[in-house]
Amino acid sequence: MTSAAEGREPQRNVACEPIDEKWGGLRRPNEAAAAGGGALFRRGGCTGECGRTAHRTAGKSCDQRAGRCEPRSEQALTGMTHSPVSPVGLSGNRLLASLPDANARLLAPHLGAVAFDRRYCFGKAHEPIEHVYFIELGLASINAGHGGGKQVETGLIGPEGMTGVPVVLRDDRSAFHTYAETAGRALRIEAAALREALDASPSLHTTLLRYANALMVQVAHTALANGRCTIEQRLARWLLMAADRVEGGTLTLTHELLALMLGVRRAGVTTALHELESRGLVRVQRGRVAVADRHGLEALAGGAYGPAEAVYRRLIG
User: Fold this and answer.
1) Which of 105, 126, 194, 196 has the smallest number of CB atoms closer than 10 Å to its CB?
2) What pLDDT score was predicted for residue 260?
C-alpha cells in the first residue's frame, strides 16, 4: 500500500540569487520561479495533506474545497534563507523601506527571505502566531469565517504591509485566517524576535502601529462596501486594490477566487465582470483580468476605493 507521504509530489526547490542593493547580503529566491513564471495568481496543485490526484487535476487545494485555511508548516514554502541581512538600500516591502536606518539594523539580523506558494497559510485563526511576514511580491488575504466553513475576505495585504498585526498589538494570535492568494516572496521574522525589537525601539513600534491603524481602516471600508455597494462596485474596488499591489496591473485569477474574496456567488462575479468589460473598464481573458480604464474603475467604485489608501499614505508615506 502506498503511503500518503509517498503519494505526494516532491517539494519543489527554488534557486536563490544574491541581491546587492536591497537589504544587502540577503539572498532571495529567484523571482521568476517564486512567481510561477510571471503568473501571480496560480492554480497550482493540491496544498492539502491528502495528495489526491483529483484535487491536483481540478486545480484546487483541499483547504479551498473545504472553505477553510489549513496550514502545512514549511511544506508550501518554496525556498528560504536565514543569512544575516545588512540594512543597505531598500526592501521590496514599503513598510520596511520606510524605516530609519537604526530600526532597519535592529530587524535585519532576524529576517529571512522566503518564497511561498498560493494558498500557503501565514496564520490560522485562534492559534499562536509563530512568524510575521513582510510581503515583497504577491498578495495575502485575511479571511473571516463562521462555524459553517464559509469565509469572506476582510483584508488584503501586499508589498505595502505585513501579516501578524496582532503581534504589534501585543496579542499572540489572530481571530482570522491569513493565507496567500498568489505565489510570491516575503521577508520573515519570528514573532518572538519582533516582540523584542518592539520593546527595544518605541519608534519601530509606532511605525508598525500606524500600519495596524491603516489596515483597520481598510477592513472597515471593506465591511462598508460589502453592506452598501453593488457587486460591480465591490469588484471594481477589489480589482483596484489588487492592481495597486501587483506589478503591471494584470491579475491571473479565477471567478471562484473572486467570489470568495467578495463573498458572493460565482455567477454574480461572472455577470459583474461582463458588465465591467462591456464598459471598457477591464479586459478579460481566460484566467486573466487586466485593468483597462483605471479612472473608470475608480469612478464606478466611488467612495468605496480611496479613503483607506489615503490613510496609508498619510501614516506610512
Assistant:
1) 126
2) 78
